[in-house]
Amino acid sequence: MSQKISQLKYQINIHNSLEIKENFFSPIFSTSNNMFWQLAFFPENFGLFLSPVICPDEIVWGERSKSNFTLYIKEIKEDIRNDIYSNTFTVPSDANISDGYGIDKIDRTLFVNGELEIGVIFNNIEVEECNKRKKYDYPTPSGLIEAWKEQLMENPSDDVEFNVEGEKFYVCSSILSKRSKYFAKIFSGNWAETVENVTNNINDIHFESSPEQHNKVKYRIDFPEGQCIFSIIMEYLYTNQVKWKNNNNQSITVKLFRLADKYLLSDLRNRAKFRIYAELGISNVCEILFGLVPKYEDLKGPVLKFMARHFEEVSQSEEFNDILKNLPKYPYFSDIYPEKHCN
Questions:
Q1: 241-261 residue pLDDT tens
Q2: Does pTM surpass 0.70?
Q3: Which end of the chain, C or N, has fewer beta carbons within 10 A?
């Protein structure tokens, strides 16, 4: 049985508003048993955003759009409360689930170094009643469940051979098909009718004329990365778990983002996208902005804003100078560079 709640409020208080130096991400919170959120506060411009914490099968806002929400910023100084910002958002149900909503910048002169209150109020939400405390289990993607059901019932062989740096690895086509639209189209023989990035990469895959040949291998695929990345991608496809660093503790987020885009893994792509934003720094923003963003336009906004906010430091960095010395490798540099002052 469901219960309607007129308002649900989540708030964080932080001392000394003008002394906050680092970006702040709130603990994840929920408005129902399977709907999670996070507040993000950026002290440089006093920006505040609410972002969905994406469940594996979410693509659009969907059920989240049933309730509008109000973001607010207040400040308390010597028992005087100052209402600095308040705005109510109504998000359409077909909005991209990776989109967050809020305000980029608030006039710094409005703050007096008091106690900062940032929060969100959800209006007219509906929750399921429960007579006992519930333990939350992160939902398993429906495609993964169906794939393992088929694996158990049909016991198919590992009929896909991956060539990774000269080594052969074998996996099951039914698992790949359930988890990836790319592989589903390829293995069903409908690849000629699929989206452009599938047909562009069809040369990676070789088809066997008979399933009895070569230990029943039906498909041979050349994997473009090394064995570490391959194992991480396969672990994700089989378990939905992601490792974001390689064996040397170096970030592989960008590589995983590229592969997720290539193989049409929307959940992994969204996770990697937010991770790219979280990992932005002086040393990597140039490569991401001039090397990655031109191919993936949806990354542009937050990356460009980071570049604009930190341009003085970035322009003096070794990474920026390396790009200036190798401009032929970055054909879109002149198109993006004039936008550095965008807010």
A1: 888 888 888 899 999 999 999
A2: no
A3: N
